[in-house]
Design a protein that fits this description.
Chain lengths: 393, 148
């Protein structure tokens, strides 16, 4: 990475760790065999894929045969939701999810609605939390699936997954969680949490892009996702992305080993950033729960300014961050998550998400705290909305 | 995604501020949509002598405001009314397609300020004819997601 860039967007993606890349490299060249081939270099690839599968299974407390590799977290979400929906249609057609899911879940649910399924989108409170009580009350006789994200990608809020899992188990309804943002930050055991399906994505925890996995509890009724060869036990055909899968395996192993130390570091960066921004800049709002949030997530709204302008100015200062502003998404509507927690449009437009990671330091935070107040002030001075506030009307 | 010229006008915007006792003031857009542009004009004998702006909005909104104020100074009111959003965008070496509505805003802001001037001078009906006051966010709606 360019040393002049301070990268504060780890919820978007993370750099591949050198140890991970090193393990992947032979599978691009010398060990290039197709994992379905019977000769030695084919078997070698097969063995590498199965070792990675074991690592994922171990991390989640799952059985090796319950892990299926996919091309991404979005694919895992699509498979989990469509697969369970179509396979259990004779039992019912109702799905429960939340208003703040990632679009990989929301748009999949909307697609299913167009095909005769009924979806309940649970609202969240002002901190972005859904309660297990809401889930319990939404269950109907035709409910076949509950899909609720583990931790939110924008505001970092962590949902009560164990409580929801307990309810799902009692009522005998499949429970899927999109854990894409949680893996690498929160210890997860699928049996303790009563999760039946779980999506994860390698590039969020220092593995390569283009590879993810879906945990499918043994016995869950789900359609096959890609039809073709016998890969992934015939459920998801495609020649295995061997190097990518090896990278995912190594990355999840490293993430699990260093979890506590990593989180402590991130929490220190996060808490100082939240406290200092709150002290230094007026007319702001912290989005998401102050405590039930991912260790590396900071999300603020700054009144009277627009998020894309803020990101461009930070970029000119060498800081990479993200926003829920409409202007950064190509849509004219701001983030559905910020609207769901009750922010008015004009405040949602002025949001900034900072997500810390491995290579960030307290010095990086010093720099952010030095430049951010100046940028906010500069943009406010340019804003006709701020002018009105200063004049007091 | 932005041209160098857009970035230059964003980072070093020309004519930011207000004009005390401006002859025409136009404000368009709304906060809900994420952009508001306010343009102040000083006009003598129908010639625009000075222009200033304040903008709440994205990089393109700031840059088009800056460029629009540069384009109108020295022009007659009549000439300024002929400045199109296309002309503002071209002067900035183009805008990404999803940002073209920002250049509409600049054109509308200039028009609103000039109409305010004409109205103050009794040369235009009192009610709003600018057609921009009721501008809605979904005038242009793009379904593109950049997700993580």
């Amino acid at each position: 990475m360019d040393s002049k860039i301070i990268y504060f967007d780890h919820a978007a993606t993370t750099p591949v760790k050198p140890e991970v890349l090193e393990e992947m490299m032979p599978y691009f060249t010398r060990k290039f065999g197709n994992a379905s081939s019977i000769y030695s270099i084919g078997r070698e690839s097969k063995k590498a894929v199965e070792e990675a599968r074991e690592k994922v299974a171990k991390t989640l407390g799952a059985l090796t045969r319950e892990i299926f590799f996919t091309g991404s977290g979005s694919e895992a979400d699509n498979w989990a939701i469509k697969g369970v929906a179509y396979s259990n249609r004779e039992k019912g057609n109702h799905i429960i999810t939340t208003a703040i899911e990632h679009h990989a879940v929301l748009h999949t649910c909307q697609y299913l609605e167009s095909d005769g399924f009924e979806v309940t989108y649970l609202p969240v409170d002002e901190n972005g939390l859904v309660s297990s009580e809401q889930v319990r009350n939404a269950i109907k006789s035709n409910t076949i699936l509950i899909s609720i994200m583990f931790a939110n990608n924008e505001i970092g809020t962590i949902q009560p997954i164990a409580e929801i899992g307990k309810i799902a188990k009692e009522r005998n309804i499949y429970f899927h969680t999109d854990a894409v943002q949680a893996i690498g930050s929160i210890p997860i055991n699928v049996n303790e949490l009563n999760v039946d399906l779980l999506s994860l994505s390698s590039h969020k925890f220092y593995g390569p892009k283009g590879v993810g996995a879906l945990y499918i509890r043994k016995g869950v009724k789900i359609t096959n996702f890609l039809h073709g060869g016998a890969q992934e036990r015939g459920r998801r055909a495609s020649t295995e992305n061997v190097a990518g899968i090896v990278g995912l395996g190594k990355a999840i192993e490293l993430a699990t080993q260093n979890l506590e130390q990593y989180n402590n570091k991130l929490v220190a960066l996060r808490d100082r950033t939240i406290e200092e921004i709150t002290k230094k800049i007026p007319f702001i709002k912290l989005n998401g729960d102050r405590y039930k949030r991912l260790p590396g997530n900071v999300n603020f709204s700054f009144e009277f300014i627009e998020g894309e302008s803020l990101l461009l100015m930070l970029d000119m200062k060498g800081i990479a961050a993200s926003s829920g502003s409409a202007c950064t998404s190509g849509s004219l509507d701001p983030s559905h998550v910020l609207l769901a927690i009750g922010l008015p449009h004009e405040i949602a437009h002025g949001s900034l998400r900072i997500t810390f990671g491995d290579e960030n330091t307290q010095e990086d935070v010093d720099y952010l705290l030095e430049v951010l107040p100046l940028i906010v002030e500069r943009l406010r001075e340019m804003s006709p909305l701020y002018e009105k506030v200063k004049r007091g009307n | 995604m932005y041209s160098e010229k857009v970035m230059d006008h964003f980072m070093n915007p020309r004519n930011v501020g207000e004009i005390e006792g401006a002859d025409g003031v136009g404000e368009v857009g709304n906060a809900k949509c994420g952009d508001i542009m306010k343009i102040y004009l000083k006009i003598e004998n129908d010639i625009i002598k000075d222009a200033k702006f304040k903008t709440f909005g994205c990089g393109a909104a700031v840059a088009t405001s800056s460029m629009a104020t540069e384009l109108v100074v020295g022009k007659t009111v009549e000439e300024a009314l002929k400045i199109t959003n296309q002309a503002v965008a071209e002067a900035l070496d183009g805008l990404p397609p999803v940002k073209m509505h920002c250049s509409n805003l600049a054109e509308e802001a200039i028009r609103a300020a000039i109409e305010d001037y004409l109205r103050k001078n009794g040369r235009l009906e009192a009610e709003c004819e600018c057609g921009t006051c009721g501008r809605r966010c979904d005038d242009i709606h793009h379904e593109i997601d950049d997700e993580d």
